Amino acid sequence: MRLRLAIELGLTEFAGKVLQTHTADITNYDIDIDYSPLVTSVCKGHENVVRLLVQLGADTPAMYAFHSGDESITAAFLPYMKSTGAITNALIWAIESEAQASHAVRLILKHPMLDVNDKTRANGTALYFACTKVRPDLVDMLLRAGADENILHNQSRNPQGLDAGRNVLHTLARGYMQGQHLEACDEDVKRCVELVFAVGVNVHQVDARGNTALHGAKDATAVRRLLDAGADANATNQFGEIPLHKCRDDNIFKLLTERNDINAKSKGGRTPLVSLLANSHKVDTQSYARALEQALQLMKVGADVTLTDDQGNSALHHAVRMEHTGKHGLPFLEALIASGADVNLRNNQGEIPLHTIEPKACAGLQENVLTTLINTKADTEAGENKGRSPLMSFVDCLENSSPEDVVALFKKMVEVGALLDTTDSTGRTLLHATTPHCRGDTAPLRYLADHGVDPTQTDKEGNTLWHIAIPRFCSWRVLPNAFYEIAALGVHPRTPNKRGQSPLHVVCSFRQWAWQKASKSGKEDFPTIFDYIVAAQEDVDCPDDDGVTGLHLASTFAEDMVSILLSKGADPSRATHEELTPLHLAARSRQANIMGHLLDSLRAAKSPDAFLATIDATDSLGRTALYYACASGRAESVAVLLDHGATLDSVSFTGSAWSGCADFEEEQSTPGWHRFQKKWAPLKMGSLTREASWSSTHGDLHLARP
């Protein structure tokens, strides 16, 4: 307490007497709530107390001392700096001081161990840090002391093998360091730039990404001086971008448009106009308005609105994707179209701008955008590469929209001439596109059905609404009334597609969201889509054209499904047209628990001889379930078969357990047979060549022939 009082009042003699009898007080403080005596002395500016504490062994927090910018404190600490690195740190700390530290800096520059171009700290020199503070007095002082203006910060090699890195011009032009923008006086910036130009700074220096000081510049004064000194306004970085591609400051923007190639393209084929609009899809209202003002400025000085990027997207494609419109957006769209933007220009995906419009604009939130395009003869029935009209594209994008918004979308599009009775290249109708998004309220489905869209119409593969919707219904919460409403539209949950695959085949191909242990909501109390589809079946063993049943599919990955299907009478001994039983498939899919369920069901339903015959049954390649268990590499699968009486001996090596052991490595390298299948992984089902019409989580059902 007495030492603290002496320090607060700057009583050097009294502090010395206290420390003669209480030396421990130098370090006796709580670092969580208080500064050390030395730090407090530095902050108070009591030079003599600082000297006393240092002499008596106080730990020297050099950063605090030199950050103070106080010449006397600096003088007290300097004798204890014993290396070039320590002196460099001291110099940079003094430069970074918020105080006018010119006297402290001048004092450090006189130190005999100082290397003014040392890069010990943060890979930058003292001159670089002085430029980040925009301190012309310090910059001048350092240059007079021999500071090299062309030493690079974060030096590296670019792909051409040349030295790359930021020099002092980069930081002066950016006007900030470590993310904090400095509101520097224009005169200070101008003076700093002139000082480094006077000694020959390289105005064309690029950093590791090829950016010159003009790329990403935020200080208009520095940019103006750089341009006057010959900086290339059309220099490209490694992405092919000129400074105008990256500029977002209004004042700098005006300077660059006077000297830039307005239609220069980056490596992605984007002009500054296209780049500006493409990067403004999701910004705040103020940034959006500024972007449109800059875009208009580009158009006034000759930006070609018909040019497209490498994806075929024009400025209009990007402009209609922007979430904001208001008083700024609509006049801009009108100006863009008046300048020659084609409302029916197709990008590489065959999309016209109407396809790429922000979906919210069509649901009534920004409907004037839609109206603007329609009034300028945009084709409401233009099909993109997948044959989808703009309306169908909107529906596919309305992931989390309310039923009310979807109905509003339909009504608005009908008003402007869109057809509801439309299909894509696969034959999907708007009902096919809309049904997967329903989670309870089926108002959009009823609206379409009431306005002439046939609920029973299938796509080109014969898929009904059930076939298309079930994959999504398996992945999130859907209320049962959605199932009942779909059925009420006349779409039967047993109708197969052209391959003989019923909705049961589809639902048995996907993990059920409601059953996942990781589900935050736990198990659902109401029927899931799986429960509903199974309950609607007259025969759960109904096969498709390849002889595949729901049990065959479920046996490759879903223990719960297998248990339910068996309880509903599914036949565990039924084989596909390739003679694969559920037991073969479970063994190959490394599903020992499922094998246990199947074996228990077989034992209960068959005589001992028939039971053993089923276990040892061979597929069309002569392979047994034991072969697949051995090839799978799962010892537990092998054990469960042997425990239930599977025959180990075989007349032929082909298809035997021994053959399975020999084929282990080949089976492990087979694509798609990882222990944990990914959701939505596209896998073949039922034959060697044909793929399912949906993406599934079940294992592969086809045979790998030698």
Automatic annotation (TrEMBL):
ANK repeats lie at residues 122-154, 311-348, 621-653. SMART domains: ANK. It comes from the Eukaryota. Keywords: ANK repeat, Repeat. Pfam families: Ank, Ank_2. PANTHER family: ANKYRIN REPEAT-CONTAINING (PTHR24123), PROTEIN HOS4 (PTHR24123:SF33). This is Uu.00g017660.m01.CDS01. It comes from Anthostomella pinea.
